[in-house]
Amino acid sequence: MNNKIGTQPYKGARDFYPEEMRIRNYIFDTWRNVSRMYGYEEYDFPIIEPFEIFAAKTGAEIVNEQLFTFEDKAGRKLAVRPELTPGTVRMLAGRVNSLQKPARWFMIGNNWRFEKPQKGRGREFYQLEVNMFGEESVNADFEIFTVIVGIMRAFGADESMFKLYYSDRKLIKALLQEYLELDEEKAVGARRMMDKRPKISKEEFYSELVKLDLTTEQIDKIEAFMNSSIDTLNEVIPQEILDNNRGYADISKLTDLLNKSGLIKYCEFEPAIIRGFDYSDGLVYEVFDLNPDNNRSMFGGERFDRLIEIFDAKDLPATGFAMGDMTLKEFLVNWNLLPEFNSESKVYLTLVDEGMEVEVYQLGEKLRAAGINVTISTSADKLGKQFAYADKKGIRYALIYGSQEIANGQITLKDLETGEQRELNIDELIEQLK
């Protein structure tokens, strides 16, 4: 029997070696910096939640097929979170009466879904979630759009690289239930097929809707809606229905704000944006990579004003998005937007002579006290070998500090990129390296 333990992580999960950790830290640091720049505060909560939190509103596909569930020793059914929003709303419900509104929150958290690992998707992934709570007006959604654009621009992306497409569930409800007069069951089925429409043929789309007992005329109107623009919606849905629809009013105002601010170059109204979460109840949006080799949805968000009801709390206006690290990394790689990562150490302190470890350590501590990151050699190998190690680690500067340098009160600073060497005292060295 072969009982050898493998070295690979669980399927769909990832190890982060130092070179991968640098990329992850870069993504997380950028997320945090931009979120704070817009006035959002960081929070966190456990990765394990009661199963019913997700069963209530997350969506049938995730709950039935992708959720990692188990029972604890007391027999309680628990789940490893597949997304951040329900847990966030659970936290809010606990303080909803004392919450200073609008509240601006952001979180970076780890999620798990049992799905087939593929390019840009795994069973384990991190997300940034940014939400505003307590503001009903579309001004909150507009601010969320500015945060999204701000994050993408912070990574070096411009309008040729991504597009934020948006629509509104209330508008879709007006089409399906007010105009086409579908009952709730048919409307839910039709909406799910509309969400899949960009990925399937017209023939398959029609075939699936016929199975829901929709007429050809109704299906034609749904297809026409999905091909409409903000200016042609009234050619599909009667104007009197639109005039009394909150979704249409919000979309119109949001589009006006985007036009006047200049952000419209990053955004576009797209009726085919549906979102698969059952708690989406207003504005919905997704950000697409425009790279022809990776033209796909990267992340999205929505209004979820009524999700808090599952905790027996009154409605709380809520809007926000969740951005995954894996799809974002693919985007950054495909557009060549990742910076060059070097060692976090500024300088490599060589060990010239055996027996001088303490003197070298003391010099290293002086540099660290001055805020300079230092890696110290642990072996008195030939200097060429020590320089080669430092260079391979991406450390630009090396220090030579042997008995001769100590006697002269000097330290030799070597630039491994240019080969230039200088002799400096400790104060000059610190000034040079800072």
UniProtKB/TrEMBL annotation:
Give the Enzyme Commission number. 6.1.1.21
Supply the alphabetized keyword list.
Aminoacyl-tRNA synthetase, ATP-binding, Cytoplasm, Ligase, Nucleotide-binding, Protein biosynthesis
The residues the record assigns to binding L-histidine are 83-85, 113, 127, 275
Q: Name one Pfam family in it.
A: HGTP_anticodon
**Aminoacyl-transfer RNA synthetases class-II family profile domain segment(s):** 12-434
What are the recorded Gene Ontology BP terms? histidyl-tRNA aminoacylation
Q: Which GO molecular function terms does the record list?
A: ATP binding; histidine-tRNA ligase activity
Any idea where this protein resides? Cytoplasm
InterPro entries documented for this protein = aa-tRNA-synth_II, aa-tRNA-synth_II/BPL/LPL, Anticodon-bd, Anticodon-bd_dom_sf, His-tRNA-ligase, HisRS-like_core, HisRS/HisZ, HisRS_anticodon
- Cellular component GO terms, alphabetical: cytoplasm
Q: Which domain of life is it from?
A: Bacteria
Is the Ubl conjugation keyword given for this protein?
Answer: no
Principal cellular location given in the protein's record: cytoplasm
Reactions catalysed: tRNA(His) + L-histidine + ATP = L-histidyl-tRNA(His) + AMP + diphosphate + H(+)
Q: Which family does it belong to?
A: Belongs to the class-II aminoacyl-tRNA synthetase family.
Quaternary structure, from the entry = Homodimer.
Q: Which NCBIfam families match?
A: hisS
This chain belongs to the protein called Histidine--tRNA ligase
